[in-house]
């Protein structure tokens, strides 16, 4: 049986899960499906037939690096693949990226809104250089974010700039290239070797650009993701399968591409 991997999930230590989820729900004006605990994510995976989940953490300030690392080491398993985080403003981000690699993690998660940066600004170059040097992944929130004003922090033009400067960078863009900037994704990124994770995009298939991106983008660069706990993994998986893209593409998107990418680190 082919392995199914959810490339985009979130969870928190049990001690702060209730507080963190409440604050995030209020900030975004949405209600989560799960309670933000690893135990709930594992139960969801069992219910939906998902074999592994990549769990993305976000350091909203430099001091959060250490507790995120400690928790990530505690929860990783055959089924849970944590991605720690560094803050771009951390003067020690280079050495911390080396530690992340040495500890056996596959990459980091960055979020331009929660970490207050623009994807292609000069101060990020050092971070990208360090990630490339250590051969790690970068999972980047791209497009707008429902909890923030619509400032262009990680748009398709910025993504293209970063990819041009760092062609070796293993950058994974979330939400089908850039959330609610899909006409630009279609014109600037679709068809190019840019990894796109698909959470919060299947709900917009009545949009021509979203449908066209799914058709135009190479199957080896599309990754299944749900953004659990904010969506239901089983429903997201069912919605993807309902597209009827064919067994070959399903095998690649639902697990093959993610496994190849993780194994390349």
Can I get a quick summary?
This protein is of the alpha/beta class. The protein has helices at residues 14-28, 38-48, 65-75, 93-102, 125-134, 156-165, 182-188, 208-216, 233-241, 247-263; strands at residues 5-9, 52-56, 80-83, 107-110, 137-140, 170-173, 195-197, 222-223.
Description:
By secondary structure, the protein is an alpha/beta fold. The protein has a single domain, classed as Alpha-Beta Barrel (TIM Barrel), CATH 3.20.20. 41% of the residues lie in helices and 12% in strands. It has helices at residues 14-28, 38-48, 65-75, 93-102, 125-134, 156-165, 182-188, 208-216, 233-241, 247-263, and strands at 5-9, 52-56, 80-83, 107-110, 137-140, 170-173, 195-197, 222-223. It has a 5-stranded parallel β-sheet. The protein has a 3-stranded parallel β-sheet with strand order 1-2-3. Helix 2 runs parallel beside helix 9 and helix 4 runs parallel beside helix 5 (125-134). The longest helix has 17 residues, at 247-263. It starts with a strand and ends with a helix.
